[in-house]
Amino acid sequence: MYRVKSTETADPFVKVGIIKVRECREFGDQNLMPLIDRLSALGCSPENFELRSVSKLHDTIIMIQYFAQYTDVDSVLILAPEERVLATPALMEGIVRLQCQWNMYVTVGGAERADDLQAMYSMFLEMEQAAPDQLLDLNIS
Q: Could you give all domains of the chain from N- to C-terminal order, each with its CATH number?
């Protein structure tokens, strides 16, 4: 999916997948509305937010895959304490693999990550626009 958009300002069309983790309920409850408020203040349209819940942190990998494969979200935020995710190498490896595979920014934390979502989305768009066109090999053997 390639879209050409201006990256000079916050993009109101960015679609954000938000994963609320039930085992981190208190963190999620404290950060969900401030996150939505900050994204809205940046110009993101609330109808472009897709909220899903999972039971455990390790379930976020499946939800990220779902967002990548079956929705058109551009970025994903795992609404959980960053130190908990960083302390789980297998989870971090899965997140990095999905980011690279789907060229989709995934971050962890709370409302403080709203600006990062916009900045990284803009950077991803710039990278896509700067990438050379794929050359197809039309040789028939």
A: 16-130 (3.40.50.960)
